[in-house]
Amino acid sequence: MIYKSIANKLRVRIGTAEYAIGSALPGEKKLAEEFAVSRMTIRKAVDLLVNWGLVFRKNGSGTFISHMNVYPGTEHLAGFFESMKTLNDKLSSQVLIFQIQPASETVAMQLKIKPGASIYYSRRVRFIDDIPMMLEDSYMPTHLFRDLSISHLEGSKFKYIEENCRVKINGNYECLTPILADSDISALLQVKEHSPILCITSLTYSAQQEFINYSVMYRNTSEYRIDRYL
Hints:
- Helices cover 27% and strands 33% of the residues.
- It has helices at 2-13, 28-35, 39-51, 80-83, 105-111, 150-153, 157-164, 183-189, and strands spanning 55-58, 62-65, 70-71, 91-102, 118-128, 131-141, 169-180, 196-206, 211-219.
- The strands form two sheets. It has a seven-stranded antiparallel sheet with strand order 3-7-8-9-6-5-4. Strands 1-2 form a two-stranded antiparallel ribbon.
C-alpha cells in the first residue's frame, strides 16, 4: 500500500540531520506535495510512525521525532570486510556503478557541501561465498579522495581512506530501519520482492570533522547477521 511505502521512506530519513531527534516532522501538506498523494494518505503513513514509536503528536504543535536507532561515534570504523574477517568464507565485491556527478541537495546536506559539488557515486554488491549480502549506494567528496578507483571499492573502502589517504576516521552515525525490498533491490540481493531487509543509512566523519562518506546500505537479513557491542 502507498502509505506503508511512504512510512518506510520517512523511517529511513529519521536519524539524519534533516530528521534529527526532537525536531518536527514536515507538515501533512508539505509531505503530500512531495509524495504527490492526499493528506489522508500522509496521515495514515504518520500513524504508522507513531505506532512504531518513532514520532509523537503534540496537540496544536505538530508531530515530533522521538526515537531513532543510531550507533554514534565509533573510532576506527569497521567496514564489511573487517566485520567479516573472522570468517573463513570467500568475501568479494562487485562494483555496478562508479561515476563522478554533482551532489543533489539531499547528499550535499549530509556531507555538508554545496549542492552541485563534485562527488563520487558508487553502487556495489558485497558477497560472502558468492551470495549477495549487501547492496550499498555510496557518496564521497571528490576533493578529499582524488584517486578513488573501482579497485579500491572492490576491496575495503575504509582501509583506502585510512591507509592510502591518511584520513583518520573519527566516528560514524548510523540509522537502522527494517524495510521491504522493492523490485530492483530484490533482484540484486536475489531475494523475493517485498522480503524484509535492513536499510542502514551511514554518515562517516574524520578527525578534522569533515563528513567523508554517506552510504545507504541494504542488508540481506535472511542470509547475514552481525552483532555489534558498543
